[in-house]
Each structure stands twice: as structure tokens, then as C-alpha cells.
Design brief:
Elements: E1 2-8, E2 11-16, E3 27-34, H1 38-46, E4 55-56, E5 61-68, E6 80-83, H2 93-96, E7 124-126, H3 129-132, E8 134-135, H4 142-145, H5 148-162, E9 169-173, H6 177-188, E10 193-197, H7 201-209, E11 214-216, H8 223-230, E12 236-241, H9 248-255, E13 256-264, E14 289-292, H10 299-310, E15 320-325, H11 330-339, E16 346-350
Parallel strand pairs: 9-10, 9-12, 10-11, 12-13, 13-14, 15-16
Antiparallel strand pairs: 1-2, 1-4, 3-5, 3-7, 3-16, 5-6, 6-8
Helix pairs in contact: 5-6, 5-10, 8-9
Length: 352
């Protein structure tokens, strides 16, 4: 089969590989709609998770089941499915402890374009199909659905980790596609005020459509000073970090109130340490919780997210700014995500 791969750090290209073999509980899926992600850029061009050679990229996919193992019960060839970006090993102790994303070690639920070939291929392998695949709901188109495997579940996980309560004031730092979904998630969870931080006009406009009440640009001056002024010196109840860099944590700790939560779902692609300001963290005793996590993955979470689209509660089409047609356009879409011109939020490739 053909696939678009990370050949080594800093180098990508098309590659030929054998079609994956499946076990009795697995499935082979033929992608029909895929989307590149900033994570692919961090992985391929920054070497964020280390050297990978000849590894097919991609982890956002809607597809058609091509083949299933003999023990798979709920899926059959021809079924249209959403493939989660995170496909845990569900029979492990960490999964039973509530951390399926780390089912066989740190971040091991993230298999595609990390431990195994991804979805930018003619076929992709899905482990434990009954636990990891999700039927594409009737009436939900693949372009809307392909935002679910990573953008929606990651942004919403930021809101989940932040434990947003009704009436909270929430700061969302970074309003790319994940940050926009963090805004939407905060809004659905009952935040009364959502301050979205980003400088691109298109993303600012879209953030307001998803529920942001205030917009701050990185160009407006000191973020901490602006947020504290906007909240009359009180600070915010919750911060969701969906962009920025290792130094963003310092800003978040400074603006979150005592008893508040800083939630990170940003993929930190560079650097060795994260900076936490000692004094503003209450010299270690400020009850300012800092947490960060990979979305749990799997079928149940994906089915719930898909129901939000099917019910009209969530419109993911607002994220999609560019649609390419044809398998050979995957490279063009990935490079668009790498360059990030002002008019792009998320490109999608329709393969059929």
C-alpha cells in the first residue's frame, strides 16, 4: 500500500509498505476522509517524540471497514466508521484504573504515527475494533466527523480536566482548532465568561461563534496584566492551555485564582522543562492545580462526541477552512497545516 510518511526528523515523503495484518479482534480500515494535525508537524519536523523512520503519519480519520478479525462482533466490511486518534489496549491494568490513554505505558494509547503507522495510507490497522471503532451516525457527513478523532475530544478533554462549573470564568490560551473546541466545551459545560486568546482574526471570529465572550490578542500587551485587569484583579477560575509554549504555564499560574485549575492539552513539542512561578503558585501552597492529559480515546468517548454533532449541539464544520479531494492531496494539506496562513484553521482531505 501507499502512504505519506515521516522518513526521518525533518523529512517527509510517499512510501510503499505492506498492508497491515490483523489479529482476530482487530480491523483493517480504508480511510475516506483524513485531516492533518499540528501534532504531525511537531512529530515530523521538530522530532518532538524522538526519531521515527519511515513511519506513516496521520491520526484523524473517517473510513470504511475493509476487513475484520473473526472475533469482531459489532463491525463488518462496508461499515462507515470514525477512527479515534487514541486507540488504547483495553485489557490492561492502567485502563481499568481509568487511564486508557496510558494503557501500556506513558501515552501508549496514542499509537497512530507514534508507535505504529498512521492513517495517511490506503489502509490503516485498528486494534481491538469493538472497543476502539465508532459507527458513523446516519446524517453526519465525514468532513464534520473527521474533526472528532482529535480536535473535538482533545479540546473537550481540556474542559473536562479543568472541571468547569456553572458560572465559571475560563481563559482559553490558543484558539487553533483544539482551542476552539476547548471554547465550545467550556461553553457547553456552563462557563459564564470565556476569554479566548489568539491573534488571527479568523480564529477570533470563530471563537465568538463557539461561545467566547471576550477576545485577547497576543499583540495587545502583557497577557497577565490584561487578564487581571479584565477580572478586577481576581483572576480566572479555570485556564485551558491549548497553545503557546513551555512558558505559557507561568502566565496561566499567575492569572488563575487560588483554588483554580490550569488544564493543559497542548502538545509541547520543544524544550526540557516547564516554568512554574514560585510566588504566584502560593510558594507551593496556593491550591492552584496544574494538570494536563491526553484524551482517553476509544469507542464510548467517540460515540458521545458524534451524538453532539448528530443532535445539532455541535457544528464542527466551522473548523474546516480547506477541503482537498484525492489521496495524493494529503501532502498539500499537511504542508498547509505546517505553514498556517491566516485563512486556515483546519484542512481536510476527502479521499473518495
Amino acid at each position: 500500500m501507499k502512504g505519506f510518511a515521516m522518513l526521518e526528523i525533518g523529512k517527509t515523503g510517499w512510501i510503499e509498505k505492506d498492508i497491515p495484518e490483523i489479529s482476530p479482534v482487530d480491523a483493517l480500515v480504508k480511510p475516506i476522509c483524513v485531516a492533518p494535525c499540528t501534532s504531525d508537524i511537531h512529530t515530523a519536523f521538530k522530532g518532538a517524540i524522538g526519531q521515527r523512520k519511515n513511519m506513516i503519519l496521520g491520526h484523524e480519520c473517517v473510513g470504511e471497514v475493509y476487513k475484520v478479525g473473526k472475533l469482531v462482533k459489532d463491525f463488518k466490511p462496508g461499515d462507515k466508521v470514525i477512527v479515534p486518534a487514541i486507540t488504547p489496549d483495553w485489557g490492561t491494568v492502567p485502563s481499568q484504573e481509568g487511564y486508557p490513554m496510558h494503557s501500556s505505558g506513558m501515552l501508549s494509547g496514542w499509537k497512530f504515527s507514534n508507535y505504529k503507522d498512521g492513517v495517511f495510507a490506503e489502509y490503516c490497522h485498528v486494534n481491538e475494533a469493538d472497543a476502539n471503532l465508532c459507527h458513523l451516525p446516519e446524517g453526519v457527513d465525514p468532513i464534520s466527523a473527521v474533526m472528532l478523532p482529535d480536535m473535538v475530544v482533545t479540546g473537550f478533554h481540556g474542559a473536562e480536566l479543568a472541571k468547569i462549573e456553572f458560572g465559571d470564568t475560563v481563559l482559553v490560551v490558543g484558539i487553533g482548532p483544539v482551542g476552539l473546541m476547548a471554547v465550545a466545551g467550556a461553553n457547553l459545560r456552563g462557563a459564564s465568561r470565556i476569554i479566548a486568546v489568539g491573534s488571527r482574526e479568523l480564529c477570533q471570529k470563530t471563537a465568538k461563534e463557539y461561545g467566547a465572550t471576550d477576545i485577547l490578542s497576543y499583540k495587545d500587551g502583557d497577557l497577565v496584566e490584561n487578564v487581571m485587569n479584565m477580572t478586577c484583579g481576581r483572576g480566572v477560575d479555570r485556564v485551558i492551555i491549548a497553545g503557546g509554549d513551555n512558558n505559557t504555564f507561568a502566565q496561566a499560574v499567575k492569572v488563575v485564582k487560588p483554588g483554580g485549575i490550569v488544564s493543559n492539552v497542548n502538545y509541547l513539542g520543544e524544550g526540557e522543562t516547564v516554568n512554574i512561578p514560585r510566588v504566584e503558585w502560593g510558594v507551593g501552597m496556593g491550591h492552584k492545580t496544574i494538570t494536563g492529559g491526553l484524551t482517553p480515546g476509544g469507542r464510548m468517548k467517540m460515540e458521545k462526541m458524534a451524538r453532539l454533532i448528530a443532535s445539532g449541539k455541535l457544528d464542527t464544520k466551522k473548523l474546516v477552512t480547506h477541503v482537498f479531494h484525492g489521496f495524493d492531496k494529503i501532502e498539500d494539506a499537511l504542508m498547509l497545516m505546517k505553514d498556517k496562513p491566516k485563512d486556515v484553521i483546519k484542512p481536510v482531505v476527502v479521499i473518495e
